[in-house]
Design goal:
Elements (H helix, E strand, L loop, with lengths): L4 E5 L4 H12 L3 E6 L4 H4 L11 E4 L5 H11 L3 E4 L6 H6 L1 H22 L4 E7 L24 H20 L2 E7 L2 E2 L8 H13 L6 E4 L5 E2 L2 E2 H14 L5 E4 L5 E2 H9 L7 E4 L17 H7 L7 H14 L1
Parallel strand pairs: 1-2, 1-4, 2-3, 4-5, 5-6, 6-11, 7-10, 8-13
Antiparallel strand pairs: 9-12
Helix pairs in contact: 1-8, 3-5, 5-6, 7-9, 7-11
Length: 321
């Protein structure tokens, strides 16, 4: 019997690298797309498994490139993870964020239709889609109104709606997840957990002066460890109903301040905390807390890695880097 073929767009990214690793361990045939001009920065994420992957340099906004990859692979499962995923950067370049994120997905759908292929297509949405949540709406469920508060969030709403529409209109087997914050080793420095951890490690290794730059420390977020999120994504393509959104989250919130305090506790000497206005968003969500009851019922998933264990894994990663 031939192996199941899994195509992961953005395979050299944070989530993509962990997802690829998980599938390879279970004997799947894993393919991935990346952008050549990004590869130098991201190759280290897959260096241990690269020999077992089949990789394609592919601009997903170019339909011909997508056609070439999908024609050659003929995947059974597609995890579409490639995106401009940094919320702050979406304010700096909203046109790129929206064009890249929506057009890439559209090309995948249209190529699959053109080739008359029927893979399960996982669209990795985001809790940012909910945007301005009212206090009485917490914890937020999938049927809550979407009030996006950043260009990134708008792009993810577009992806979400497009996936629903292509299922309803053409029967594409789209699986839609709305992941809340997920962190772990290999996350880029621009994201808050890695930013704090890497800054503290740099100070401990005498690479920089003893101060840490921070943004909004009062925001509360719902965190899930990357290993739990990868498990959830794999369960989603097996169990979730097509064309419907599913929240994936822990159901608990932690202040950004808690993350900072944890990493600061790793230093034997006092570190000065400096608020950096460039790290503040034009609009931000004070609390983001999810309800994943719908997803848990259909998949039997639940988080297994604690918040503290997640932070410990991140810190150890930066110490060894």
């Amino acid at each position: 019997m031939s192996k199941v073929k899994v195509l992961i767009t953005g395979i050299t990214g944070f989530v993509g690298s962990h997802l690829a690793e998980s599938y390879l361990k279970d004997g799947y045939e894993v393919y991935g797309t990346y952008m050549y001009h990004h590869l130098d920065d991201e190759l280290e994420r897959i260096v241990d498994i690269q020999k077992d992957l089949i990789l394609y340099d592919c601009d997903l906004t170019d339909r011909n490139s997508v056609y070439r990859v999908v024609t050659e692979v003929k995947p059974d499962i597609i995890h579409h993870l490639a995106a401009q995923s940094f919320v702050k950067a979406s304010w700096d370049n909203p046109e790129f964020t929206i064009t890249n994120n929506i057009l890439s997905e559209l090309n995948i759908f249209e190529v699959c239709r053109q080739l008359e292929l029927d893979p399960i297509i996982h669209i990795a949405g985001s809790s940012e889609e909910y945007g301005k949540i009212k206090s009485e709406e917490l914890p937020v469920k999938e049927d809550n109104p979407l009030r996006p508060m950043s260009p990134y969030a708008v792009s993810k709403v577009g992806q979400d709606m497009l996936a629903q529409q292509y299922y309803l209109s053409y029967g594409l087997r789209t699986v839609i997840t709305r992941a809340f914050n997920h962190e772990g080793p290999r996350r880029g420095r621009s994201f808050v957990t890695s930013s704090f951890a890497s800054q503290v490690v740099d100070i401990l290794k005498c690479r920089t002066e003893s101060r840490i730059m921070v943004g909004n420390l009062e925001a509360q977020r719902d965190y899930t460890d990357i290993d739990d999120m990868v498990r959830a994504y794999r369960l989603a393509v097996i169990h979730c109903k097509y064309g419907e959104p599913y929240n994936i989250c822990s159901g608990k919130t932690h202040k950004i301040q808690e993350i900072l305090d944890y990493f600061l506790s790793k230093s034997p000497s006092k570190i000065k905390v400096v608020q950096d206005q460039s790290r503040m968003r034009p609009s931000d969500l004070p609390v983001l807390l999810g309800d994943s009851t719908k997803f848990r019922k259909i998949t039997k998933w639940k988080p297994e890695v604690s918040f503290e264990k997640m932070l410990d894994k991140i810190f150890k990663y930066w110490v060894l880097k």
